[in-house]
Amino acid sequence: MLGSLILLWLCISLLAFLVRTRRPKNFPPGPGPIPIFGNLLQLNLENPMPDLERLSVRYGKVFSLYFGGRPAVILNGMSVMKEALIGKAVDFAGRPNGLLLNHLTQGKGVIMADYGPSWREHRRFALMTLRNFGLGKQSMEERILGEISYVCAHLEASAGKSIDPQTLFHNASCDIICSIMFGSRYEYDHDFFQAMIKMMAENSKIANGPWGMVYDTMPLLRNLPLPFQRALRDYHTVKLHVLGIIAEHRATRVPREPRDLIDSYLDEMEKRGENCAPFDDGQMIIMLLDLLFAGTDTTSNTIRTAVLYFMTHTDVQERCQQEIDEVLEGKAQVSFEDRHKMPYMQAVIHEVQRVASTLPLSVFHCTTKDTELMGYQIPRGTLIIPNLTSVLYEEDQWKFPYDFNPSNFLNDQGQFEKPEAFMPFSVGPRTCLGEGLARMELFLILVTLLRRFQFIWPEDGGEPDFSPVFGVTQAPKPYRMTVQLRGGLTN
After folding, report:
1. Pairing between β-strand 383-387 and β-strand 70-76 as defined by DSSP bridges
2. CB burial of residue 5 (10 Å; 0-12, 13-18, 19+)
3. Dihedrals φ, ψ of 62, to 5°?
4. Rounded distance, CA 123 to CA 138, Å?
5. What does each C-alpha distance from 274 to 147, 263, 269, 277 come to in angstroms?
6. Which of 45, 243, 319, 444 is deepest in the core (most CB within 10 A)?
7. Which residues fall within 8 angstroms of residue 307, CB to CB, at 6 or more apart?
8. Signal peptide: which range, if any (predicted)?
9. Is 174 known as a binding-site position?
10. Domain boundaries, the chain
11. What residues form DSSP beta bridges with 38?
């Protein structure tokens, strides 16, 4: 009797799965799914990027996959990305529900919040506040250059030694965003600061890795003690710490004299009165965590990628230093405006961002209405995955798509030019709101480091490995580096 019931249940489950995974009329093509798993077993979940490229060759620039019983449409190539994220921006501007990242953020804040009034108001507030605290101005330059002085001090103390730079660059990028949000920075040896940075790096790997996929596609397993529980626990730990900082701000703030982003948010809530929606404590904490997580990993991983290529392409490093020395001769420190006089340095930074592809699959989107793309019908609520790497490496968009070559961003006259296919932070209304800060950080930090130091591949470094570690934010594999002070520099 029991065996018959189990068999009946399996048959009903299989039938339900087959009904759920039947492709709608004129839906993008893709491989056939299997019960329970969908197409998960056809992907290398440690790094699905090569599999996505293979499937795009077979099924086209727009194809579909099933994650469990949930359909997803993968976007590949610049023409598709432009039509979806710019031409039909609102149709593709939603955020999906039911994923690990949704449950971490509760659908609040700015990154995973669905398209709508609350998201628009919080994004506008975040951008305005970043500008108020100096983005694009000298005050932000001073904040960034002040932070990089701590990195320089550490590197000077380590001159001639073989060191692992991963934590160091995470420290700097995290402290810059902390100073904007909290009004203060952490010492690099602060216990919680180091634990927080480690949590962010681990959560990035979990959320888009195999265990994140298990969480997203198999709800029955979510309460089991599997590795994705660590992501939930770590996020809650950081959240509690930030809640403590908010409580301190409430007790010490002077209304309408904001010291940082928290004070600005509290001012906004006070200005709106009792009914301050959509601005409230729940939204504030998630927005702060969004900025903290997004503002740390992307920048630090790009800097580590840059240093990796400086060490392995010494001609590029030397040419950057020559340009920096010529432009900054007699100046105590670099200014963001100096970028206009450094076409080669700008080309190198953009080429690093291209090959790093720090957000390989962007942040997943969702359709807000029934829509059409490249002749296919896509129903409302469909999961949309923009494969940004496919654009950054697209053969007909780049002179050297598969090589690290700054000439991808230089015209025949040696002037800096940014091709339309350069979209490392996505495009359209859901473009990463920290892009402006990241560009400023990358230029000021890398120019300052190259002016002072020579980066050398260490004797104990083994063979360079350029293959990335896949995650929500993609990172270079851990490596060691040796730094030497450049001769004749005293500032």
Report:
1. parallel
2. exposed
3. -120, 110
4. 23
5. 39, 17, 8, 9
6. 444
7. 165, 449, 455, 481
8. 1-21
9. no
10. 20-469
11. 34, 67
Residues 190-222 pLDDT 10s: 888 888 888 887 887 788 778 888 888 888 888
Q: Answer whether 140's CB lies under 8 Å from 170's CB.
A: no
The DSSP line for 133-184 is TTTTSHHHHHHHHHHHHHHHHHHHHTTTSEE--HHHHHHHHHHHHHHHHHS-
Contact present, 253 and 266 (Cβ < 8 Å): yes
pLDDT in tens, 70-79: 999 999 999 9
d(CA 201, CA 234): 11
What CA dihedral angle connects 381, 383, 384 and 388, to 10 degrees? 150
The CATH number that domain 20-469 falls under is 1.10.630.10
DSSP string, 178-217: HHHHHS----TT-HHHHHHHHHHHHHHHHHTSHHHHHHHH
User: Under DSSP, is residue 395 helix (H, G, I), strand (E, B) or coil?
Assistant: helix
Residue 257 reports pLDDT greater than 70: yes
| Structure-token pair, residue 424 | 């490392």
The model's pLDDT over 277-320, given as tens digits with 9 standing for 90+, comes to 899 999 999 999 999 988 888 999 999 999 999 999 999 999 99
